[in-house]
Design a protein that fits this description.
The complex is a heterodimer.
Chain A lengths: L11 H13 L3 H4 L3 H22 L5 H38 L4 E6 L2 E6 L8 E4 L9 E5 L1 E5 L1 H4 L5 E4 L6 E2 L4 E4 L2 E5 L7 H10 L7 H35 L9 H11 L2 H20 L2 E3 L2 H9 L2 E5 H5 E12 L5 H12 L5 H14 L11 E4 L7 E7 L5 E7 L1 H10 L6 H13 L2 E7 L2 E12 L3 H10 L3 E5 L4 H11 L3 E3 L4 H13 L4 E5 L5 H6 L2 E5 L4 H6 L2 E3 L6 H38 L24 H18 L1 H6 L8 H33 L4
Parallel strand pairs in A: 11-18, 11-20, 18-19, 20-21, 21-22
Antiparallel strand pairs in A: 1-2, 1-3, 3-9, 4-7, 4-9, 5-6, 5-8, 10-22, 12-17, 13-14, 14-15, 15-16, 16-17
Helix pairs in contact in A: 1-4, 3-4, 3-8, 4-6, 4-8, 4-9, 4-22, 7-8, 8-21, 8-22, 9-21, 9-22, 10-21, 12-13, 21-22, 21-24, 22-24
Chain B lengths: L1 H29 L6 H15 L9 H24 L16 H12 L9 H4 L2 H31 L9 H27 L9 E4 L5 E4 L4 H10 L20 H26 L2 H27 L1 E2 L4 E2 L10 H14 L14 H12 L10 H18 L7 E2 L2 E2 L2 H25 L3 H4 L7 H15 L14 H30 L16 H36 L4
Antiparallel strand pairs in B: 1-2, 3-4, 5-6
The chains are: A alpha+beta, B mainly alpha.
Chain lengths: 696, 561
């Protein structure tokens, strides 16, 4: 599947489908889910009845007919907004579905292979996959190692390694084994695989209203009830006023006029766009290759105010690198570099490699072929905390070179009746203070010097954290380093706090602690031992490369497995809520202008003075042409603004990493003040247009 | 100039005294030491002993609400019966007959809801017993009920992860003993010293210069007059209310009446500040109220002093007491409608159309500009919750107030609290102006008649109690409609407010950060004002346009009805 980065809001295909869907959504059972738009549709139905009874009685009102038309348009436009948002998701789901072919699986039954349909696999079944096979279901590798092409899910074409045990054992149904053979234990029931869930989520089939959406709907319903009352009570006041003005009660407000007023006042703009905003929030995340298991999770992401970030991979580039050789007294840098390179030759860790590379770069010491020599590599063990090499010089002298933590090397030297020089000790503590990792190199009974291993903080991450701080989000770095090292990196990267020497259970503990203090915590994890913390966190973003347990525990999965993604997730969550707030404000602010259009329009008969006009026509500050054109213009504006705002609903309001107060002030000016002014202009323009083309 | 000085003096006195009284009340209700404890402490403990109240036992919101409702139901039944049978009861010096059932219902509802709408004239209808045992008692306890409810809400908002909202009976007792009683004793002394009447004597018969006989009603007016202001009750001892020289004899008492009327409501804002441990938050609320008050006053004054094309004068004195003049009458009219008090020192019916509209709109907003004792604060907190929800979303977080998330349940309750009074005002006034039983009570034709009906129902639903006059409200129709209007306007808010208190108390508190939507700065003040005005304006613009607004234009054109 191609990368989901289409910049177009919607294609022709989506638009056509959405057009069709907007009519299908006229089904009352669907409409009733959106109280505001449901009211509009009832109003439209009532005016339709009025128009038809008029025709049956032999007179036709052009005004009523046009009102009816625009009321139906209002409903259709709202449906269209929702359908477009859904359509974008459906297009993505369709391409995902293609990869879910009807594969056969080689199921192991009593150590014999049996061909079965992938759909018949149950949780706990064991299957075998060879190179070229499509993995039939989600599962964990229990035997073997293989490279797997996961592009069907992630869009990333480079294959990934999957192996039994450890944190890279999870495989996803629908992906393809490229090399080797693995045995997989199925972990999902048919129809509930990862892919199935993604598709269901994208299509919005399982979309539930989120807590904030529900609260907003209550507010909108409340406003709708208020305006319903305004409109219901109006004929009574009007009747009284007609009588007081000496006008026949037959001139009381007609149903289409009352319904027009109602539809203009109730918050149709936000009501019509609300579900599109929700769907597109999920959609925007998907475009960032993040799959949220629920809309609730995205909302929670916006609320998050503490982020737990792993140091490695998120804050620093994957690994520590050797950056400097600091020799002990009596040795040269070159001697140290040479010994350090020898000790690291067999060290396949990135740190070991970086030592070899640094020695080569600085002193052009090449890696030597060691097989010819009489050598023995000493691997790193947790007990000794060091690694190295034993080799015999041509003169038969045994060189025992070790590199490791200062404590380990001290023990090693002292066991060989040497001593640990003071200046090395000083260097070690100085480096630790800087947050670097000092790696001491010793040979037999002498200390040669110290390798400066340094964490490389990712470029631009400090600014990112500063932005987060401005948004009121605290960052906590999680690391296995000692507190000194951690503090130095924390300072360099600009995180607010750190958790040093962290064990997996410390993460969980810290999350609980933050939550108890009222914070909402977001974290990233990939390992099985991250699962409890991922489940506990308010936003748990699991890496797609992680274990099945981690993916199950989190409420979001990052297909790119990019740890900095959490920050983007938070931004998307905030944007979602902002869009709702902005459009609600805009919608309510719009009403001011509509009152100024409609009230003078309907009051033309009241208390008419000798000059022949009603004193209330003073309120017609837009100078709209006639009562009919005023009402019609307001209704048309009300319908068109929904269409005009669909792109905003789909894209979300512009997100800026600035403090809450400034965001608020800015949005109030744009959507609050703008919401008051825009309709005055819009209604006036529509009125002028209507008159110029003789629609009224 | 003189008028301007008086108005400024009033504002300064209000702003200066409120924080002091607020601090004192905080001490009283938090349970700290305060100087009234040695004076009245014995009374508090003996009340608890006699009634068996365990004052330290805190209640959850349902128990607390049950206490509020039970207490008010009891008060209503007693008051109803007292009126129905006053002829058989003592202290009826003028041998007044029993009160009709619908008026008894209306008056009972009116006094327990802190409305003090009076469909009758006090001196001709009610015996001393009813006035004192019924009305004066309710003047104290209905105000105390408001304080108790707002205390529960304040505790709910400022405590975390708890059920406990305080003890209703203790809150009631403390409100009466340490706040209302001392203040009214002091003020009554001042009023009596200024010449207000305080006696149990028979009415006095006098012969006027023309030789006709005039009955001059007397009674324990001073004490009633003071508590009706302090408790934002507003029910006058005499029909002329605060315009009557026996109730408010001098400009000085007039000044004190206005101050007494706002002081507890505005001080409670600062009490809230102490609970929040944030003076800034309290100040923001106070400033919001103050601006709304000042703007209303400015419009009202402008309208009163503008040239009246019909009468060809400006500064119309019709319906105003010459002792107080235009400025003090307008100030009083704004203050009394801001504060849900309803005491009047001039006839609001005779105010200019726009001044009348300001008074009406103050009440339609739900009496939140200082508002009733307790009820003003809980009313504006509902608007704060609404503002925080609408605007708070725009900062990209689930809206929160004082660190507590506003979720569906709070929204539902806040909407209910805002809907309840609006629904009754709109529906009942719509009914009244379309049926003969409603229209026949009108004394004025044209838009002013609509204003009178609107005013009556707004006043009742806002638990204000002032009347536009001109409307004969002592009919079965109006007594019942307005009676229900008052009950819904009161308890339709109290019940959801208590529910919000309960659910907010249970929540955790998210610490403040720069991602938090601040509720203590100018931006929020402006937002809150906008939401209040827009929600209120959108709800009531059509009837206001057909009532006072069109009347204003017509007046400028010289048209009358």
């Amino acid at each position: 599947m191609e990368k989901r980065n289409t910049s177009h809001l919607f294609t022709r295909g989506i638009a056509l489908q959405a057009l069709k869907d907007s009519f299908i959504k006229l089904n009352p059972a669907v409409l009733v889910k959106n109280p505001v738009i449901f009211i509009v549709s009832i109003g439209a139905l009532m005016t339709t009845v009025v128009v038809f009874t008029d025709i049956l009685n032999g007179h036709f009102s052009n005004f009523n007919f046009q009102i009816t038309l625009w009321l139906w348009f209002t409903v259709l436009f709202a449906n269209f907004a929702e359908a477009v948002a859904e359509g974008r998701g459906k297009a993505q789901a369709a391409s995902l579905r293609k990869s879910r072919t009807q594969t056969k699986a080689r199921k192991l039954v009593h150590s014999k292979e049996e061909m079965v349909l992938a759909n018949d696999l149950r949780k706990g079944d064991v299957v075998i996959c060879d190179a070229g096979d499509i993995i039939p279901a989600d599962g964990d590798v229990i035997e073997g190692i293989a490279s797997v092409d996961e592009s069907a899910i992630t869009g990333e074409s480079a294959p990934v390694i999957r192996e039994s045990g450890g944190d890279r054992c999870a495989v996803t149904g629908g992906t393809k084994v490229i090399s080797d053979r693995i045995t997989i234990k199925v972990t999902s029931e048919p129809g509930f695989t990862f892919l199935d869930r993604i598709i269901a989520l994208i299509e919005g089939a399982k979309r539930q209203k989120t807590p904030n959406e529900i609260a907003l709907i209550i507010l909108l319903s409340g406003l709708t009830i208020i305006f319903l009352l305004v409109v219901v009570a109006l004929p009574a006041y009007f009747g009284y006023s007609l009588k007081a003005s000496g006008v026949s009660p037959n001139h009381n407000l007609t149903l289409p006029v009352l319904i027009s007023l109602l539809v203009c006042l109730i918050p149709t703009t936000i009501g019509g766009l609300l579900s599109a905003i929700g769907i597109s929030g999920m959609d925007r995340l998907l475009r960032k290759n993040v799959i949220a298991t629920s809309g609730k999770a995205i909302e929670a992401a916006g609320d998050t105010d503490v982020l737990l970030l792993d140091k490695t991979g998120t804050i620093t580039l994957g690994n520590r690198m050797a950056t400097e050789f600091i020799p002990a007294e009596g040795f040269t840098k070159e001697q140290l570099a040479d010994a350090a390179q020898l000790a690291s030759l067999a060290d396949e860790t990135p740190e070991g490699r970086s030592v070899v590379v640094l020695a080569k770069e600085q002193f052009n010491i090449r890696a030597r072929e060691m097989q010819s020599l009489d050598t023995e590599f000493i691997p790193f063990t947790a007990q000794t905390s060091m690694s190295g090499i034993d080799l015999k010089n041509p003169d038969g002298q045994l060189r025992r070179i070790r590199k490791g933590s200062s404590n380990a090397i001290r023990k090693f030297i002292e066991n060989n009746n040497g001593f640990f020089p003071e200046n090395v000790e000083e260097t070690v503590s100085e480096l630790s203070r800087q947050g670097a990792t000092p790696l001491v190199v010793g040979e037999n009974n002498q200390v040669l010097g110290v390798i400066h291993l340094k964490d490389i903080v990712k470029g631009g991450i400090k600014q990112r954290f500063a932005q987060l701080r401005m948004m009121g989000i605290r960052t906590i770095m999680i690391t296995g380093d000692n507190p000194q090292t951690a503090a130095a990196i924390a300072a360099e990267a600009g995180v607010d706090d750190f958790l040093a020497e962290a064990k997996p259970e410390d993460k969980l503990h810290r999350i609980r602690e933050e939550q108890a203090n009222g914070h909402l915590v977001g974290m990233i994890g990939d390992g099985t031992n991250d699962a409890p913390a991922l489940a506990q966190a308010d936003v748990g973003l699991a890496m797609n490369t992680g274990t099945q347990a981690a993916r199950e525990a989190g409420n979001m999965v990052d297909l790119d497995s990019n740890p900095t993604k959490l920050i983007e997730v938070v931004e998307t969550g905030k944007q979602l809520l902002m869009t709702r707030g902005a459009l609600t404000t805009f919608s309510i602010a719009n009403d001011v202008a509509k009152y100024f259009a409609i009230i003078p329009a309907i009051a033309t008969l009241l208390y008419v003075t000798s000059s022949g006009v009603s004193p209330l026509s003073v309120l017609n500050i837009m100078k709209l042409t006639s009562p009919e054109s005023a009402i019609l213009s307001a209704v048309i504006f009300n319908a068109l603004i929904i269409v005009a705002l669909i792109p905003l609903a789909l894209r979300g309001v512009k997100y800026r990493p600035i403090s809450a107060n400034r965001v608020l002030a800015l949005n109030i000016v744009i959507y609050g003040l703008g919401g008051i002014i825009v309709p005055f202009i819009g209604i006036k323009l529509i009125d002028m247009l209507l008159v110029s083309i003789h629609m009224i | 100039m003189n008028e301007a000085i008086q108005i400024v003096l009033f504002m300064v006195a209000l702003a200066a005294l409120s924080p002091l009284l607020g601090r004192y009340m905080a001490k009283v209700f938090i349970g700290e030491k305060h100087f009234m404890k040695p004076v009245f402490g014995w009374l508090e403990t003996s009340i608890y002993k006699v009634s068996g109240v365990k004052s330290e036992e805190e209640m959850n919101w349902k128990t607390y609400l049950y206490g509020v409702l039970l207490f008010n139901l009891f008060g209503m039944v007693v008051l109803f019966l007292l009126q129905m049978f006053q002829a058989y009861l003592p202290l009826n010096t003028e041998k007044l007959p029993n009160v009709s059932w619908h008026l008894s219902f209306n008056t009972a509802a009116s006094f327990i809801t802190n409305t003090n709408w009076q469909s009758y004239s006090g001196e001709n209808t009610l015996s001393y017993l009813v006035q004192m045992m019924g009305l004066t008692v309710q003047n104290f306890v209905s105000a105390a009920t408001g304080i108790a409810v707002v205390l529960a809400l304040i505790r709910g908002l400022t405590r975390k992860t708890t059920d406990a909202l305080g003890n209703f009976w203790a809150d009631m007792t403390r409100s009466v003993i340490y706040v209302l009683l001392p203040l009214s004793i002091i003020l009554t002394m001042v009023f009596v010293s200024q010449g207000a009447v305080q006696t149990f004597s028979h009415y006095v018969k006098a012969t006027t210069l023309q030789g006709t006989e005039q009955v001059i009603p007397l009674g324990p007016a001073a004490s009633q007059s003071v508590i009706k202001q302090l408790g934002t009750n507003g029910g006058g001892f005499f029909n002329a209310n605060a315009a009557h020289p026996f109730e408010s004899p001098t400009p000085f008492t007039n000044f004190l009446e206005m101050l007494a009327l706002l002081i507890i409501s505005s001080s409670l804002v600062f009490t809230y500040g102490h609970y929040m441990k944030s003076k800034r938050q309290a100040r923001a609320i106070f400033i919001t109220m103050f601006i709304l008050f000042a703007v209303g006053l400015a419009i009202s004054l402008w309208s009163e002093y503008s040239h009246n094309n019909v009468l060809n004068i400006s500064g119309n004195m019709e319906g105003k007491e010459t002792r107080f003049g235009v400025a003090n009458s307008v100030l009083f009219s704004v203050v009394t409608t801001d504060a849900s008090c309803g005491a009047v020192n001039c006839m609001h019916d005779s105010l200019s159309p726009l001044s009348g509209m300001v008074s009406m709109f103050n009440m339609m907003l739900g009496e939140i500009i200082f508002g009733g004792v307790g009820s003003g604060l809980y009313g504006i907190i509902i608007f704060i919750i609404l503002t925080v929800f609408i605007a708070g979303l725009m900062v990209g977080r689930t809206p929160e107030y004082l660190g507590k998330k506003i979720e569906a349940f709070e929204m539902k309750m806040a909407i209910l609290a805002i809907l309840a009074p609006s629904i009754v005002i709109k529906l009942f006034s719509a009914i009244a102006c379309s049926i003969p039983a409603g229209v026949s009570s009108l004394n004025n034709a044209g838009p002013h008649g609509l204003s009178e009906i609107l005013y009556a129902f707004s006043s009742a639903a806002g638990n204000n109690g002032s009347a536009f006059g001109g409307l004969n409200a002592n009919t079965v129709f109006y007594n019942l409609m307005i009676g229900f209007d008052m009950l819904i306007g009161r308890f339709g808010i109290i019940v959801p407010v208590m529910a919000i208190a309960g659910s907010m108390a249970k929540k955790k508190v998210t610490p403040v950060s720069s991602g938090t939507f601040r509720t203590d700065n100018w931006l929020f003040v402006m937002l809150l004002i906008s939401v209040i005005l827009i929600v209120g304006g959108l709800t009531f613009f059509p009837p206001l346009a057909l009532g006072p607004i069109v009347e204003h234009f017509l007046m400028n054109l010289g048209v009358t009805f």
